[in-house]
Automatic annotation (TrEMBL):
GO terms for molecular function: metal ion binding; prenyltransferase activity. This is Heterodimeric geranylgeranyl pyrophosphate synthase small subunit protein. Keywords: Magnesium, Metal-binding. The lineage of its organism: Eukaryota, Viridiplantae, Streptophyta, Embryophyta, Tracheophyta. The keyword Cytoplasm does not apply. Transmembrane segments: none annotated. Its cofactor is Mg(2+). It comes from Thalictrum thalictroides (Rue-anemone).
């Protein structure tokens, strides 16, 4: 007996965006010199970003039985987003 589950990529994607943005915001606090940090934040926190890299990282973690919380820290999903901006 096959089991079919309906997966809605749009809903999955949009459910992760706010948490990814929050994690990125926390990962780059404004420090001295402020202009450098503000520039970094501008490029990483742009609202036009699709966040495909961290979403794929989180999905991969969940696919192999991990928790999405394990993929969120700067060392994984958010770090990938920062690198993909460059």
């Amino acid at each position: 007996m096959s089991m079919h589950t309906k997966f809605d990529l749009y809903t999955y994607w949009t459910s992760l965006i706010s948490e990814i943005n929050l994690q990125l915001d926390q990962a780059i606090p404004v420090k001295y010199p402020e202009q450098i940090y503000e520039s970094m934040r501008y490029s990483v926190l742009t609202t036009e970003a699709k966040r495909s890299t961290p979403v794929m990282c989180i999905a991969s973690c969940e696919l192999f039985g991990g928790s999405c919380l394990a993929a969120f820290p700067t060392a994984s999903a958010c770090a990938l987003e920062m690198v993909s901006i460059i």
